[in-house]
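Dear support,

I submitted the protein below through the web form. The confirmation email said the job was done, but the results page showed an empty box. After a refresh the structure appeared. I'm attaching both so you can tell me whether what I see now is the final result or a partial one.
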Amino acid sequence: MKFSTKSVVGPMQRLMATAQNGLEVIRFGGLVHDIESSPYEIVERKRMYRLRHYFPDDVGAERPVVVLVPPLMVTAEIWDVNGADGAVGILHQGGIDCWVVDFGSPTTEEGGWDRDLADHVLAIGSVIDTVTELTGRSVHLMGYSQGGMFAYQTAAYRHGKGVESIVTFGSPVDAVAGMPFGIPHGLASDAADFLTDHVLNRLPITDSMVRLGFQALDPVKTAKARLDFLRQLHDREALLPKERQRRFLETDGWLGYPGPALTDLLQQFVKHNRMMLGGFVIRDQPISFADIASPILAFVGEVDDIGQPAAVRGIVRAAPNADVYEASVVAGHFGLVSGSTATRNTWPLVRDWVNWLSGRGELPAQIDHMSQEVGRNGPRTGLTRVVHAVGTLAEAGAGLGRAIEGVAGQTLRGTVELGGEAARALPRLTRLGMIQPHTRVSLGRLLAEQARRGPDREAFLFEDRVHTHRAVNTRIDNVVRGLLSVGVRPATRVGVVMETRPSAMVAIAALSRIGAVAVLLAPGSELAKVAELTGARLLITDPENLHAAAGTGIRVLVLGGGDARKLDIPDGCEVVDLEQIDPARVTLPAWYRPNPGLARELAFILVTGTGDRFDIKYVTNHRWALSAFGTASAADLDRKDTVYCLAPLHHSSGLLVSLGGAVAGGSRIALARSLDPAQFAAEVHRYGVTVVTYTWTMLRDILDADTFVKGHAHPIRLFIGSGMPAGLWRRTQDRFAPARVLEFYASIEGDVVLANVSGAKVGSKGRPVPGTAKVELIGYDPEVEQILVDGAGFARRCADNEVGLLIGTASDSVDLSAGGLRGVFAPGDSWMPTENLFRRDSDGDYWLMDRVDTVIRTPRGPVFTQPIVDVLNDITAVDMEVAYRLPAADRTLAVAAVSVRAGHRLGPADVTEALRALAPDQRPDLIYVVDDIPRSSTFRPSTRAVQAAGRPVAGDRTWWYNRESEQYEVLTPELAERLGI
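What the results page shows now:
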């Protein structure tokens, strides 16, 4: 072998350089470099932040203004880590005025470890106010990672005030679409619960924990970076340009994470996905990204495993009123804002975006509108990773591993979500099955349980305010003391006549907590008559209904509106203002025990109808719990849901389905004061409503108002209620796709509850809810109103598609003397008949045919009204309809009245074609058009009002059924006279 001086000196020089540089790293933590930070001054200091103004000596009135927001776990130097080649350097060179928010370290800042997410959002709002005041211009709000999430939240909270545009870098919005590293959302959600309940309230997340956590998230890249540094330690010139960035990532750039802020993030973003759905809470105020109208530019890292592309692109659906753009960069999470890729691609694009919006340039070709079609993350191709990681075998292997991980993650996600649904339903059904007549169960008890489990969780929302379980429970207890002070005792029947508001819910819950009976009355109803029928001894009302309540002559208790309002009390009326009673001065009686209600005891009385016909429904605690847990199970309600209570609380759908289902499922309740389509559209987004309750034709007003354009993004997944006509059902599903309708049926007497869970058969009432009464269909003759029996004297079971009377098994607590049946199928068995006739199809689904007392008895046999109503409502031109019996000269006619939707026309050919779906003997004899069909307070079309308006008359808007031609034809005066109309 031939030796030379060069062959010896070269390695020695390399060894000496390595040793010298290594010693410098050991002594100073890194190589001494000449990359200088950009100059800045602190313009404002507050408890939450310091506001930096970069290059303060450069002035220019026409310069666009940007505010840069860092994430919580990274220092504000992230915007200047590359000096002149970093964010503030490149933007300043492009003629842009740069301001940076510095939250500081929670370790050194006063109260730093106690900061929550809202503190940071409000701080950014304060920064925007300061900068706009100093510069006279709106700002381009920019944020990296969680800083971008803060930017979205702040803009939504301020409704865009002072924000020219929003630019984010790797900032996820849709947690369900893509959690970091493909973790299934269900698994991440459970982990979030564990961390918030057991870790974050005990252990601070320090800067070293954050650093080690991020490095552990991508150990291959971390190891590769360190090996590259060691291999080049001899080459100082090669290392110096990246030295500041290396030190930033290794040690200098990390900050601790305040526990309350991380708790908010995990609960609102990871657990409930409220950045996507709406209802994100900032200081008791719900916000929605639908309130953002400023242009948005979202940078997407194609190989970003933390801000997953699908999660980042969720902003296009979360902010439907904003013009959303995206720029896709082949970079990881950190590479989006720092390093050579950011220098070459990210910051020049940001500069050009700002200049374009300022009218100083063109929109770069790399920036394009974000597509509405955003799929879930799947395994990214190996090619993208190979291009990104040029020739690195370790990263190529990691790419393959992540591809396998992605496939497994998708499978695991489905398994976890299905398992989670079953895990939620099973305890509810088990608890339902364990309820015995002597079991303590009530609305008040369930609310107390929710408050005990999560006192600071959100209970309900009303008029843009969020109320926690702690606050609601305290309010209920205070009202309980007020009621006790005026003599309310267990089993006392107390009427509640209030508009839908928090005080109404509190009043009902307070009565339940005492063990009293709440008689729920509709405002504007015949209060004196109903109070007498139900035995109500007191009335609780709100200020709006005080005069009507006082007119009954019964003692009136006023609740709601605060203690500062003045009441206009009629003379001679006994009125007690509960808001003026100091609960602290009320001594609880010795007999009082909270939530004493037993399953068998009466809890609520519901009243429907007017005039000489009232339907009174007695609801026991068991019956309420049956509907509550049944609804929560059928609708799969949980804490991620926000239930919008359109149905009034005095209706069974509001009390049993909305309030009951939400309380049993642990969901948030959003109360709507009235049915206002514009308010509904705004609050659905602002509250993050996932489930909407309805009654009868309530949704018709929302669809007709056209406040939701078809295909417009919304968070609703389900509509639940009862009485929706078939045509309106189809319109609702078409307008709000992919949301579906969950139709319930609940009997007035007994424990029969049906639910159309799948929604596949429009108009069907579905099947019995697990845990509720077993049901049967028995033969029934509506002509003589008698049950049909077999040769042994037992009731005859109906065959498929045969119309019969629906009955359900009677529980031990049911008083059979009130209309129950014994010996139906076997000696001594107990059943409770419903008031309705049904048919059961071959799949086991039940279809409502009629009430027993509204079947039309014609010479050709009984005609059932519900199929007529459903078929007519399915005609596009038909708005509403009713069917009823019309006495004529020598016969009874089956008649239907319809109103026509604005902008549509309806003719006899339309109804002829539609009614071919019914057997000829079930088609109505007459159909006529009316200008309008009035509705009850529960939005049910009023047959009585139509009948009171007058009989059908001959003319072009009245059609009779010609049974020979099987066509509907115009009713002539001669034929009308012959029919005796």
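Response: this is the final, complete result; the empty box was a page-load delay. The first strand starts at residue 40 and ends at 45.
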